[in-house]
Write a structure and sequence with these properties.
Elements: E1 5-11, E2 16-24, E3 27-36, E4 43-49, E5 52-57, E6 62-66, E7 71-76, E8 83-89, E9 99-104, E10 109-113, E11 118-123, E12 131-136, E13 142-147, E14 151-156, E15 161-167, E16 174-177, E17 183-188, E18 191-196, E19 202-207, E20 212-218, E21 222-227, E22 232-236, E23 241-246, E24 254-261, E25 273-279, E26 283-288, E27 301-304, E28 309-316, H1 333-370, H2 375-386
Antiparallel strand pairs: 1-2, 1-28, 2-3, 4-5, 5-6, 6-7, 8-9, 9-10, 10-11, 12-13, 13-14, 14-15, 16-17, 17-18, 18-19, 20-21, 21-22, 22-23, 24-25, 25-26, 26-27
WD repeats: 269-297
Keywords: Repeat, Ribosome biogenesis, WD repeat
InterPro entries: PAK1-Kinase_Regulator (IPR051959), WD40/YVTN_repeat-like_dom_sf (IPR015943), WD40_PAC1 (IPR020472), WD40_repeat_dom_sf (IPR036322), WD40_rpt (IPR001680)
Length: 387
Amino acid sequence: MHPRMSLVAGSYERFIWGFSLNPKNETLTLTPLFSYPSHLSLIKCVAVSGSVVASGGADDTIHLYDLATAASLGSLHQHSATVTALAFYAPPSLPFPRNLLSADAEGSLSLFDADGFVHLKTLPRVHRRAVNDLALHPSGKLALSVGRDECLAMVNLVRGRRSFCCRLGKEASIVRYDLAGDRFFMAMEEKVTVHGAEDARLLFELDCQKKVLCATPAKNGLLYTGGEDRNITAWDINSGKVAYCIEGAHNARVKGIVVLTDSDAASGSDDPYLVASASSDGVIHVWDVRMATTEKLNPVAECKTQSRLTCLAGSSLKLKRRHSGTNPKGQDQTMEVICTAAINKYRDYERKTLIQQQQQQLKTKAVAVEAPTSPDSAVATVHKALK
């Protein structure tokens, strides 16, 4: 059985990083797939479905990539403001996405057909201010969004219009559906609220002590959160209590969490259950959380990108069994060299481009000094154009 588990991270340095998570000698390694300085400004969000990757940046564009070939697929330019959130919809019966939904800093949403990435519709002014996050219902018919206007909006994707909007009284930065679509979650500073999907009734309020920067649902009624506390906390959303916590998971703020699960495996204690996390200091960890309730965990795979990471996404297929508790120290040396070389290469490219632009400006000024335009000739040109 050939594994195919991938992680994609975005950074302030405009790089998008792609990794493949592979078993090697009963351990896991993060193998680099690609690194592209594709955006003109920082990357705000990434989304993965199957082998398709989308990234959104402060340059108002969405870039697309293929994990299978580690190649760029082009870009989308429908937005006129920073792309703040992305979400794919993929039917359970299909190995590839059907739609892509995006949001921007002007409060608008855009819907694309993932087959060829044809722009289907733009929903303007869903929020009066920037959209912070969006979540697609597992049915693909509805989407929730939260914005800087302190509102929660529901969008009917079948009819292509906003169907509901309410004021929250406080700005929410994250919104997520659970895997079944029966509940949704919103993060407001250090609080996470759990609501019923049918009537939005408040079920639980989770106190995370410090600001929550990322959250992702998992099987068995779990919700993983991370943020300024540098921990990864698993919450039982059926009771509203902490199931377990990986304390000190990172040395900096946790910016992204991804659950990588073999969904085809039979249930049991030997089922692979991996959680990946990324921090703002550029470190990505992969954890086997099967023993999280009984012992202190060490990451089973690790890499250092040397970038300030802003977001993390991933996809997973089947994964071979392996032993837990393996310390990955020393595994990330090759990865660190590759990432450092990629950044240095791009910085050299930027430096050369700047020098070329300066030289071109000097040449333009020199030509203007050597051949000034006389007032008489300019007037003659205007008269000729008017005739």
